[in-house]
Write a structure and sequence with these properties.
The chain is α/β, with parallel strands linked by helices and 128 residues long. The protein has helices at residues 13-35, 77-86, 103-116, and strands at residues 44-45, 58-62, 68-70, 73-75, 93-97, 121-123, 126-127.
Length: 128
Amino acid sequence: MKRFRRMDSINIVPFIDIMLVLLVIVLTSATFIAQGKIPILIPQAQGSQDASKHTKSIEIAIDAQGNYYFDGKIMELDAIQTELSKLPKDTPILLRGDQKSYFEQFVKLVGILNQIGHSNVDVEIERE
């Protein structure tokens, strides 16, 4: 007759591994949801004015890697130009750029704004 070995213990190591992975996923997604915006380190300047007087403005952001965001959606520069040409010329536009992004990307964006004729543009900075 064959004897069966009795299992008195359960190996919980795989269960702990799965729970830790789920915890990392939840904490990572909760951090992004809590911020609710693209992480950009705003450059500092003195003598700036508060640009929050506009009720609804279009936000164009440039992150540290040089990616463009149009109202929170990642877009290429050509697509941003197309979207801006659809807007009225007096639409308030808020430019946000990471302090580590290249100045060239910012200049290209401002060039497109000048070409289209948008003049109601604010640049967001952090006060010192």
